[in-house]
Known about the structure:
The complex is a heterodimer of chains A (256) and B (278). Chain A has helices at residues 44-51, 88-93, 109-121, 137-148, 167-180, 193-199, 220-225; strands spanning 6-15, 18-28, 33-37, 59-64, 71-74, 155-159, 185-189, 202-207, 209-213, 218-219, 242-243. Chain A has 256 residues and is of the alpha/beta class. The longest helix of chain A has 14 residues, at 167-180. Chain B has a single domain (3-277), classed as Orthogonal Bundle (ABC transporter involved in vitamin B12 uptake, BtuC). Helix content of chain B is 82%, strand content 0%. Chain B has helices spanning 3-9, 13-38, 42-62, 66-86, 92-113, 121-126, 134-153, 155-163, 165-170, 175-197, 202-213, 220-245, 249-277. The interface between A and B is medium-sized, with 31 and 28 residues.
Amino acid sequence: MKDKLVEIKNLSVSYDKQRVLEDANLVIQPHDFLGVIGPNGGGKTTLIKAILGLVKPDSGSIQFHIPLKKVGYLPQINQVDKRFPITVLDVVQSGKVRTNFLSLLKKDPADRAYAEQLLEEMGISAIKHKAIGELSGGQMQRVFLCRSLMNQPELLILDEPDTFVDNQFESELYEKLKELNQRMAIVLISHDVGTISYYVKTIACVNGQVHYHPSNVISTEQLASYNCPLQIITHGHIPHTVLSLHENHHDHGHNH
Amino acid sequence: MTMDTIIELFSYDFFLHAFWASFFAAISCGIIGTYIVSRRIVFVSGGITHSSFGGIGIGYFLGWNPLLGAAIFAILSGWGIQLFTKKAKVREDSSIAIWWSLGMAIGIIFIYLSPGYAPNLMSYLFGSVLTVSVSELWFMGVLSVVLVLFFTLFYRLILYVAFDEEFAKTTGLPVTLINFLLISLIAITIVLNIRVVGIILILSLMTLPQATANLFTKDFKRMMPISILFAFIGSFVGLLFSFYVDIPSGASIIFTLVVQFGLVKLGLFLHQNLSVRG
Lengths: 256, 278
């Protein structure tokens, strides 16, 4: 068994000549469920885009101990055009990694069958011929989750899959991720710190730098020491708010 | 207008040419239009269209075929807009505006500098489908075949890149190459169809049939043939209309396409409402 999936060393990334990430270090371990939190503009999305090879780092290295095609990706939903004339089945099939794009010249019944299977498992095969513009936010996120699973990934990277979805779907989604986590490592960016702490195993605070916290229990003091001043959303007025494993995660407010 | 008189029209060369021009225009604009509408790059295409006027001006000045100059300008501006936006980080709308106005300015300057009167200038601005030459028809025919083949063979590649460019990169698709090829095909399609409806109206031929097709399908694959069909019906009826009422063909074709959209929309509206009540 590998002890590391991805190893990020001294990574610095800039956007428009502005340093977004400085000297970041992070190891993604097998079966980890890493919650990535941090303020807007702190570099959460930049970090995963660097992992995916979508932005070029200024310096540092990203080492993969798994094939690159075994990394599944669910981008922020506002990255895609929701009115593009494309069917659900085509969206899911587009997730398949091609080593040779000429393989796209011919139909691949196995791809289609696997896409249908994923939609079935996600409980949305009824909408497979619909255009994505006709779906609700929750359905759309499930479709993009299916797309990210097309290559049977060993590492799944999700950028705010909880936007545009209602509370009920949000907990369904996290249950689904928990189930997937038995087969693959998950890196989850979320703005909903309270809710994800119930599901994640470890936390990375990203604000210019990356602070890895090998537990899902984190206090505001720790967050502050990580230079990650986040408002932890909880109900009631608890002094020294602590994110921790709750018996009933519905306790945690969704009042963001 | 009876069937006999329509058949009689086909015995005239100029009408036959106009018919084939509309036919090929429908195919190329149906396919490329579906792409630009789906990808929301109508404004980019507007920039390419207008900047091709610069090439027409230089063509006049040097005594070349103005369409050759237009093709060079269109392709360069297509690449230029992409380059400015992606590499030089100029806002896309600003970058489009720069190429749009630069092309128009160059065109006006060179037409002014050209000796004598530019007799066909109006036909480039407003189209003149009845004077399309046989060699232009050949170019349009070849373009139609190329587009049909390209979009059939590379359908999935084009679709995936157009839908989510960044994600497509993570799946190993040649995103830059595809964008480059498609912007070139857009430029060539625009230039070869300038003669049909003119620079001013060409964008409508690439967006109106698609708007009508969009009423029936939200699937890229189906939108292409349906757009071709509506583009062809609109162009042919518009052509007949212009011939009988004796008005400019380009404007008549676009007018027909708008009416077609309105009628289909109304028809669908009535159909839905009646079937709900019935």
